[in-house]
Please model this.
Amino acid sequence: MGNRILLYAAFCLCACGTPAYADDFAEFKKEFQSAGYGEKLQILGKISADDKNALKKAAVFLCDPNPKIRQKTIDWLAQKKSDAATGEFLVSEIVRKKDVPDYARCAGINALGAINVASQKSVLIELLNDKNCLLRAEAVNTLCASYKGGDVLDAIRAKLSDPSYQVKTAAIDAIKQIAPAEL
Model:
């Protein structure tokens, strides 16, 4: 299991940054690879929103197998980088990349909801038709928690007949919150 985690971390480091990037990103990768849980949280706390590599660094944290690290990163993004460029980066570098682990893609979807960029609502609605049931369920939860509108409700209603029980359950729970009179 330990080697698998290291392979995921190495993949994410390579996928989210190329060797041509600035020295501070190379130093960051080196520091991240050797860090434990507490040290990773300290590293995350040191990232400045103005850092030109801030989003690439955040992407590395979103690819971490530890869910607490991913959640802290989502919180950091919501507080420090909640703009359209962040949403576009998350979609292109995390959510839509099929070779990124599912847990990281789900964290990217969650982060889209946390930063609540209106332009990304259509991406989340589109994800409701993804082949991966985990991503569909996460998209339902994120849409329910972060976005409003008839289009959101209609899209979630359509998931009531999804073949995956996870997606159906998420859709039922979402409709209970959005339109409780319907159930």
